[in-house]
C-alpha cells in the first residue's frame, strides 16, 4: 500500500510540474492574444495622433513659411505653385459630389434591395445579388479607368447637347456619377440584410390587413429596415469621401471654386492629396497631411450627423426596430 | 384590389426592375469597356515583359561562317524580309507609341545574331545579348569585302526591303547591332504585387488571428472590450489614402531604424498589414464563433489546456473561414491603390526588390492613367488581369463557404 502511495505522490508531483508548465503556456498565449487585440485597437488612435501631429506642422512653422489656418479652412483658391492654400472650396466640392452621388445611389439601392428580397425568387434573386457583389469587388482603379474612358465621354456629349464645352468631360457630374456607381453596392448590400432581418410577423400582419405585397414592401418593410439603410448610406458616403484614385483621374483639379456648375471641373480633398506626387519635402508635401486631417474630420462629422438623423428617425418610428 | 392600386403596384415594381437593370447595365458596360480596350493587347509580352524599353548595343568579335545559309522553319508572311545568310527575318511594324519599328520575327538558333555581346560601358559590358524574335533592330553595322564599315537599318531611313538585300549582297562580317527590347509589360508590377501579398499577409495574419482569438475567447464583456471592438470598427472606416499617410508618419520611422531609406515594398506591406486587420479580425472571429462550443467543452473536459484547445480543436475547425479571410485580404491587396501610392511610390520597376520602391498592378494602372496621354490600352489590359484575379478569389471564397455550410449541415 505504502509503495503505491509513494508512486502516487511521485506522479502527482510530476503532473503538478507539467500542469504548472502548461498553465505557464496558457498565460503566455493569453497575453499574446491580448497584445494582438490591443495593437489592433491602438492603430486607429495612432493614425489620428500621427497624421494630425504631422498635419498641423504647416501652421506652426516660422512666419514666412507658415500657412494661414483661417485661409486654409475658408479660402477659395488652391495654387500650390504660388504658395496659396485655400481648402474651403475643396471641402464644399467634396461635400457636393459625395452627397449628391450618395443620394443618387440610395433610391436605386433601396429599389434593388426590394427586388432582390421581395419580388425576385430563387435563381433570379441569386443572380441579382451576384451583380451587386461583383460591382462591390471591382477595385477602384478599374472604376477609374472606366470613368476616364466612358463616363467622361458621356458627360462631354451631354454637355455638347446643351452647347457647353467641358475639359474632356472631366467634371463634377462625372465624379458624381462615378461615386453613385461606387457607393451603390455597399448601400444595396446593407439594405438587403436590413430587409431580411425584418420580423416575418410585420409582413404577415400587413398582408392580413389587406395591403398588397408591393404596398407591404414599400410602406412596411422598407421603413422597418431604415436603420440598416441609414448605416449603408453612411458607409457609402464614407467610401465616397475617401475615394482617391478613381476620383482624381476625372476631377480635373480646379484651381478655384467652389464649382456649382456640374459640367465644370472640380477638386476634392483626395484629389488634392494626390497632386504633386513628386514632392517629397517642403510645404507642398506637408500640406497633404493637413488635407488628410480635414478629410478625417469631414468623415467623422458626417457619421455623427447621419447617426443623429437615424436616432431622430428611430424615435419618430417608435418601437419598430 | 382596385384598379388604381394595381397600377400603382405595377409602377413601383417596374421601378425596382429599372433600378436593378441600371446596375446590371453598368456592370456590363464596365466589363465590355475594359475587355474591348485591353484584350487585344494582352499577350505573353505584356504579361511577362518589361515595362521600360531597353536599348541594346551588341558587338560581334567572332568570325562567322561566310558561306552559311539558313532556311526559316515555316513559311513566312509576305511582309517579312529574310536574310538567309545571317538567319533572321524582319518586319516593318507600328509600335504602341505609334512609331515605325523593324521587328525581328525569326532568328535562327545558329544565327550570328545569337552571339552578340553588350558593348556599352557599364556593369553589363561583355555579357551575352542574344537577339530574339520580338526585338527591334534600329541599325546594323557590317564590314564589306573591301574592309569598309557600312551602316544600314531603320535609323538610315531604309525599309527592310531596302537594307536587307544590301546586307545580303555586301556583308562579310557584322560588327555591331543596335536593337531595342520593346517595353509596355507588367511583369515587374506582377512580381511586386506578389511580394506585397506575401509580406502583408506575413505581418497581418498572425496579429489578425490572435486579436480575433482575444475577442472570441479571452475578452470579457466590459468597457475595454467595447473599446477594442469599436476601435477596430473605426479602423475599417478609415479611407485608404489616410493609411498611406500613416505609413509615412508612423511606420516609416520604425523601419528606418532597420535601415530602410524611403518608399519601398516593405513600407507598403506594413501599411497594408494594418489596413487588412479589420477584415481579418472580423472574418476570423466569425469563423471561430461558428465552431460549436461543444468541441471546446469536450476538449477542456478531456484535460486539454486552453491553449491546446484553441490551437488543436477550435482553430482547425475554423480553418475554412480563416482561409476565406486570407483570400479576401489578398483580393483587397490586389485592388488597393491609394494606400500604396505614397508608401511604395509611383516609379514602375522591371525588377522590384523588397527594400526599394515599386508599383503594384493597381498602382501601375494609376500611373498609366496620369499625365496628358493616358495609356488606356495597357491600363485596360492590366485591369483585366486584376479583375480576373479579384473575381476568382471572391468566387473561391463563396465556394469554400458553400462547401463548409454543406458539411455543417451533414
Continuous helix count of chain A: 12
What is the CATH C level class of the largest domain in chain A, in words?
Mainly Alpha
Secondary-structure-based class of chain A equals mainly alpha
Mean pLDDT of chain B: 86
Strand order of the largest sheet of chain B: 5-1-8-6-7
CATH architecture of the largest domain in chain A, by name, is: Orthogonal Bundle
Largest sheet of chain B: 5 strands, antiparallel
| Strand residue percentage of chain B | 5-15%
CATH topology of the largest domain in chain A: MetI-like fold
Average predicted confidence as pLDDT of chain A? 87
Number of domains of chain B: 2
Q: Tally the helices of chain B.
A: 13
CATH architecture of the largest domain in chain B: Orthogonal Bundle
- The helical percent of chain A reads over 70%
Question: Based on helices, strands and strand pairing, what is the structural class of chain B?
Answer: alpha+beta
Number of domains of chain A: 2
Fold and architecture overview:
The complex is a heterodimer of chains A (321) and B (410). Chain A is mainly α. Chain A has two domains: 2-55; 69-317, MetI-like (MetI-like fold), CATH 1.10.3720.10. In chain A, 74% of the residues lie in helices and 1% in strands. Chain A has helices at 2-55, 69-74, 88-119, 122-137, 140-161, 172-196, 200-208, 213-224, 226-242, 245-250, 269-273, 283-317, and strands at 78-79, 84-85. A two-stranded antiparallel ribbon of chain A has the order 1-2. In chain A, helix 3 runs antiparallel to helix 4 (122-137), helix 5 (140-161) crosses helix 6 and helix 7 runs antiparallel to helix 8. Chain A is flat, with a radius of gyration of 28 Å. Chain A starts with a helix and ends with a helix. The mean pLDDT of chain A is 87. Helix content of chain B is 56%, strand content 12%. With 410 residues, chain B is α+β, with helices and mostly antiparallel strands. Chain B has helices at residues 3-38, 44-48, 160-170, 187-218, 223-237, 240-256, 265-289, 293-301, 306-317, 319-335, 338-344, 361-369, 376-409; strands at 54-59, 80-83, 88-94, 100-107, 117-118, 136-144, 149-152, 171-181. Chain B is elongated, with a radius of gyration of 30 Å. The longest helix of chain B has 36 residues, at 3-38. In chain B, the strands form two sheets. A five-stranded antiparallel sheet of chain B has the order 5-1-8-6-7. In chain B, strands 2-3-4 form a three-stranded antiparallel sheet, with helices on one face. Chain B has two domains: 54-181, no CATH class; 187-409, MetI-like (MetI-like fold), CATH 1.10.3720.10. In chain B, strand 2 and strand 3 (88-94) form a beta hairpin. Chain B contains 13 helices and eight strands.
Amino acid at each position: 500500500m505504502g509503495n503505491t502511495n509513494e508512486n502516487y505522490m511521485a506522479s502527482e508531483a510530476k503532473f503538478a510540474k507539467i500542469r504548472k508548465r502548461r498553465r505557464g503556456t496558457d498565460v503566455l498565449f493569453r497575453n499574446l492574444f491580448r497584445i494582438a487585440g490591443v495593437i489592433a485597437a491602438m492603430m486607429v488612435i495612432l493614425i489620428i495622433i500621427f497624421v494630425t501631429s504631422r498635419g498641423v506642422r504647416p501652421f506652426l512653422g516660422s512666419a514666412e513659411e507658415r500657412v494661414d489656418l483661417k485661409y486654409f479652412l475658408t479660402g477659395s483658391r488652391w495654387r500650390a505653385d504660388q504658395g496659396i492654400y485655400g481648402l474651403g472650396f475643396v471641402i464644399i466640392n467634396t461635400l457636393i459630389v459625395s452627397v449628391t452621388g450618395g443620394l443618387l445611389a440610395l433610391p436605386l439601392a433601396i429599389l434593388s434591395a426590394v427586388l432582390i428580397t421581395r419580388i425576385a425568387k430563387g435563381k433570379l434573386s441569386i443572380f441579382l445579388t451576384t451583380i451587386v457583389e461583383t460591382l462591390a469587388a471591382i477595385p477602384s482603379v478599374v472604376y477609374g479607368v472606366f470613368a476616364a474612358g466612358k463616363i467622361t465621354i458621356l458627360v462631354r456629349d451631354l454637355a455638347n447637347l446643351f452647347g457647353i464645352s467641358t475639359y474632356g468631360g472631366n467634371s463634377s457630374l462625372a465624379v458624381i456619377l462615378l461615386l453613385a456607381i461606387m457607393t451603390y453596392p455597399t448601400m444595396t448590400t446593407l439594405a438587403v440584410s436590413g430587409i431580411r432581418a425584418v420580423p416575418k410577423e410585420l409582413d404577415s400582419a400587413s398582408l392580413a390587413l389587406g395591403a398588397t405585397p408591393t404596398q407591404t414592401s414599400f410602406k412596411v418593410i422598407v421603413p422597418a429596415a431604415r436603420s440598416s439603410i441609414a448605416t449603408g448610406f453612411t458607409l457609402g458616403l464614407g467610401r465616397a469621401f475617401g475615394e482617391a484614385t478613381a476620383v482624381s483621374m476625372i476631377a480635373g483639379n480646379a484651381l478655384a471654386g467652389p464649382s456649382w456648375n456640374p459640367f465644370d471641373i472640380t477638386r476634392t480633398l483626395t484629389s488634392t492629396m494626390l497632386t504633386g506626387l513628386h514632392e517629397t519635402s517642403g510645404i507642398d508635401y506637408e500640406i497633404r497631411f493637413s488635407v488628410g486631417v480635414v478629410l478625417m474630420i469631414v468623415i467623422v462629422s458626417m457619421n455623427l450627423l447621419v447617426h443623429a438623423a437615424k436616432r431622430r428617425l428611430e424615435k419618430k418610428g417608435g418601437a419598430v426596430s | 384590389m382596385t384598379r388604381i392600386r394595381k397600377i400603382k403596384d405595377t409602377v413601383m415594381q417596374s421601378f425596382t426592375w429599372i433600378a436593378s437593370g441600371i446596375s446590371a447595365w453598368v456592370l456590363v458596360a464596365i466589363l465590355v469597356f475594359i475587355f474591348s480596350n485591353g484584350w487585344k493587347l494582352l499577350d505573353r509580352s505584356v504579361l511577362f515583359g518589361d515595362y521600360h524599353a531597353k536599348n541594346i548595343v551588341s558587338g560581334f568579335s567572332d568570325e562567322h561562317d561566310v558561306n552559311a545559309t539558313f532556311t526559316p522553319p515555316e513559311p513566312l508572311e509576305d511582309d517579312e524580309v529574310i536574310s538567309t545568310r545571317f538567319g533572321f527575318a524582319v518586319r516593318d511594324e507600328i509600335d504602341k507609341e505609334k512609331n515605325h519599328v523593324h521587328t525581328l520575327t525569326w532568328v535562327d538558333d545558329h544565327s550570328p545574331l545569337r552571339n552578340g555581346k553588350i558593348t556599352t560601358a557599364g556593369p553589363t559590358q561583355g555579357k551575352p545579348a542574344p537577339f530574339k524574335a520580338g526585338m527591334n533592330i534600329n541599325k546594323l553595322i557590317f564590314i564589306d569585302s573591301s574592309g569598309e564599315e557600312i551602316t544600314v537599318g531603320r535609323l538610315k531611313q531604309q525599309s527592310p526591303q531596302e537594307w536587307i538585300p544590301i546586307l545580303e549582297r555586301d556583308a562579310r562580317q557584322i560588327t555591331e547591332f543596335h536593337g531595342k527590347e520593346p517595353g509596355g509589360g507588367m511583369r515587374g508590377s506582377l512580381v511586386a504585387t506578389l511580394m506585397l501579398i506575401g509580406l502583408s499577409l506575413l505581418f497581418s495574419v498572425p496579429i489578425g488571428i490572435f486579436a480575433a482569438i482575444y475577442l472570441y475567447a479571452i475578452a470579457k464583456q466590459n468597457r475595454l472590450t467595447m473599446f477594442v471592438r469599436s476601435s477596430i470598427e473605426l479602423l475599417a472606416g478609415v479611407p485608404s489614402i489616410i493609411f498611406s499617410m500613416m505609413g509615412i508618419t508612423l511606420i516609416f520611422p520604425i523601419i528606418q531604424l532597420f535601415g530602410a531609406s524611403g518608399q519601398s515594398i516593405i513600407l507598403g506591406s506594413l501599411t497594408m498589414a494594418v489596413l487588412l486587420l479589420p477584415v481579418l479580425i472580423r472574418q476570423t472571429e466569425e469563423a471561430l464563433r461558428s465552431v460549436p462550443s461543444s468541441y471546446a467543452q469536450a476538449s477542456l473536459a478531456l484535460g486539454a489546456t486552453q491553449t491546446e484547445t484553441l490551437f488543436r480543436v477550435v482553430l482547425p475547425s475554423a480553418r475554412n473561414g480563416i482561409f476565406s479571410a486570407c483570400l479576401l485580404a489578398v483580393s483587397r491587396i490586389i485592388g488597393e491603390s491609394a494606400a500604396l501610392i505614397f508608401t511604395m511610390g509611383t516609379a514602375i520597376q522591371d525588377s522590384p526588390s523588397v527594400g526599394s520602391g515599386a508599383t503594384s498592378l493597381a498602382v501601375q494602372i494609376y500611373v498609366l492613367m496620369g499625365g496628358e496621354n493616358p495609356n488606356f490600352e495597357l491600363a485596360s489590359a492590366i485591369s483585366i488581369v486584376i479583375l480576373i484575379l479579384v473575381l476568382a478569389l471572391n468566387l473561391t471564397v463563396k465556394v469554400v463557404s458553400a462547401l463548409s455550410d454543406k458539411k455543417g449541415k451533414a
